[in-house]
Amino acid sequence: MIEEVDRLREATVTDCLEDLDWGRLDAHLAVLTLDEDSAKKLVDLVLRARRLVFRYPGNLKKRAAILSGVVAKVRADLSEEAADAVAARFKMFALIDEGYTGLRTMIDCLPLAGLSEAEQVSAYLGHVARGWDRIRSQIDAAGAAGELLISGVVLETPGGHRFGADAATSLLVNVLGMNVTLTAHKGKWFDADDLVRLPPLPTATDEQIAQAGAADGTALGWQQWQLIEERCRYLGGALEKREATKEDGIPTGAQLIVHTPEGIEWEVLDTIANERLGERLGQTFHEMAAKTNLLSKAHGVDPGAAMPPHGYVSPEEMHSVIMLSEYLGINVATHPTELGGLRLCEWMRGFAVLQQLANHNIEAASEPLGRAFPRLTIAEVEKVLQRNGLVGPKARIFIDHASFAKSSRDVYDAPILRGEEDWCLLAVPALSAALLIRLVLSTLANKGLDVEGKGEAFEEQFRGALEAEGLPVYHFEVRRGDQTYEYDALVPWGAYLFVFECKNRSLSGTNPIASHNFLRSAAGHVEQVQRLAAALTEHPDILTTKVKENCSALRIVPVVVSAMPFSMRGSFDGVYFNDAAAINRFFSERYSHVSRLHQIGPHKVVHRVALHDLWSGEKPDPDAFMRHLEDPLQLRLMVAHMGIGPIGIQIGPNLYAYTQVPRRREMTMQSIATVAGITAEAIEAEMEQFSATLAPVRAKFEAAAKID
Question: Which listed residue, 59, 462, 648, 707, has the most CB atoms within 10 A of its CB?
Answer without folding.
Answer: 462
